[in-house]
Design a protein that fits this description.
This protein has 14 helices and 14 strands. By secondary structure, it is an alpha/beta fold. It folds into three domains: 44 residues; 173 residues, Leucine-rich repeat, LRR (right-handed beta-alpha superhelix), CATH 3.80.10; 159 residues. The strands form two sheets. Strands 1-2-3-4-5-7-9-10-11-12-13-14 form a twelve-stranded parallel beta sheet. The two termini are 40 Å apart. The model has no long low-confidence stretch (mean pLDDT 78).
Length: 427
């Protein structure tokens, strides 16, 4: 705080001296303009820090903390004065993102800290994350029941980071906590780095059945062990509000596709696939149409390897797809023996309805191939300018950008795409 005020005073003195110097010079329009700018700077520095009302300050702190996910910035800014500090501490959103590392340290200090977070978050919806140890047993009574009850009643986002934690029938009741007065308020559920044993799949299904209000579901780095038993076909997991599904590096895709995802019924409009191998993506191409064919409007694919054939096979399985985002570290050219050759096989009738495509790391030649394929399958051209009715955002590497073939492809894209945004990385 002292450094802040010292710097402001130094800036004010420097501007004042500069104004005095200019005022001694001959009057001209340029002199007047410079004086006006300096007066405005001086007035800005002399503004009262108490001029902002509490509600405006509170909103600034909420924005700065990204809804409680990064409170450090807002806390740092609040050191300007005691009043700002008081408003920041009383801003409930800053304390609504809570991370608890289990097992909790024993003693009153740990319990009082958790209670203080609950008190400061007031009535704001809570985003609760449990981080589990890599190994070891978590006592079921490690979290005081009163604290757990207060947290779950206001929780709208629940995340478990398992660090290789095994989910079995005799596991601590981490997932069961979700059902304790939580299922009606929960909007987001994420499970990360968890290994699901043969006898743990039933518990996972039961929890998902109870989460009827969940809108966002993320399964990240999930390993399904011991070949789980097949779920009876009549067992349906109804999630009527599920609009966002994120799957990341699922280690045994076949088990997940066979034993869990086919039974999740929900109007998924956004599907995110991250860190899938090409082989796994091909499996997805074959089964995706049976899972979410009627609802998905937006597909985000982030992977180490991808090809035009595989990407378009994904698109053809989603007939209502309107937005496609693809980020690939290595693009496999269509002339390669693997993946499947160009053009991709279309096993059923497909009419492209894409309105926006975002490609990062896709060679210019492959970008043109993708658009030509989509045009052959119904992507329309505008009647006025004859260009494809689509928004295309592409990012290339510097080497790809400077290649002569790339320049030709960019010229083709400008001539044939209605809205084109090109950029390049610095790498």
């Amino acid at each position: 705080m002292l450094r802040f005020r010292t710097q402001v005073a130094a800036d004010q003195e420097a501007i004042t001296l500069k104004m005095q110097e200019i005022e001694q010079s001959r009057p001209t329009p340029a002199r007047k303009a410079r004086l006006d700018r300096l007066r405005l700077q001086l007035a800005t520095l002399q503004s009262d820090i108490h001029a902002l009302p509490d509600d405006v300050l509170r909103h600034i702190f909420e924005l700065g903390s990204r809804g409680g996910k990064d409170k450090d910035y807002s806390i740092l800014v609040s050191h300007v004065c005691q009043r700002w500090r008081r408003v920041a501490i009383a801003t409930a959103t800053l304390w609504s993102d809570i991370l608890l590392e289990l097992p909790l340290p024993k003693g009153r200090r740990s319990a009082s800290f958790s209670s203080e977070l609950i008190r400061r978050s007031a009535q704001a919806p809570i985003s609760l994350t449990f981080e589990l140890p890599y190994a070891g047993v978590i006592p079921s009574d490690n979290i005081p029941s009163k604290i757990l009850h207060d947290l779950l009643l206001r929780c709208n986002s629940y995340r478990i980071i398992g660090a290789g934690w095994n989910l079995r029938s005799n596991s601590p009741p981490i997932l069961e906590w979700i059902t304790v007065g939580l299922t009606s308020s929960l909007r987001s559920l994420a499970l990360s780095y968890i290994r699901v044993g043969r006898d743990g799949m039933g518990g996972l299904r039961n929890v998902l059945e109870r989460c009827v209000s969940v809108e966002r579901l993320a399964l990240e780095h999930i390993s399904i062990l011991d070949g789980p038993e097949t779920m009876p076909e009549t067992k349906v997991i109804c999630m009527p509000n599920l609009s966002y599904l994120r799957l990341e590096r699922i280690h045994t895709e076949d088990s997940l596709l066979r034993d869990l995802l086919p039974y999740i019924h929900g109007p998924v409009t956004t599907l995110v696939l991250r860190d899938f191998t090409v082989e796994a993506t091909v499996v997805w191409c074959e089964r995706l149409r049976l899972l979410f064919t009627g609802s998905v409007r937006s597909l985000h694919f982030h992977g180490r390897y991808m090809s035009s054939s595989t990407l378009l096979r994904l698109c053809t399985q989603l007939p209502h797809l309107e937005k496609l985002t693809c980020l690939s570290q290595t693009w496999l050219l269509s002339s390669s023996t693997w993946p499947p050759p160009w053009p991709p096989a279309v096993e059923h009738e497909y009419a492209a309805k894409l309105k926006r495509i975002e490609l990062n790391g896709v060679p210019a030649t492959e970008t043109q191939r993708i658009l030509e394929f989509l045009e052959n399958h119904g992507l329309p051209r505008n009647a006025m300018d004859g260009k494809l009715e689509i928004v295309l955002d592409v990012i290339w590497t510097s080497a790809e950008w400077n290649a002569s073939s790339s320049k030709e492809e960019r010229a083709w894209l400008r001539s044939n795409v209605q809205t084109l945004n090109c950029d390049k990385t610095q790498h």
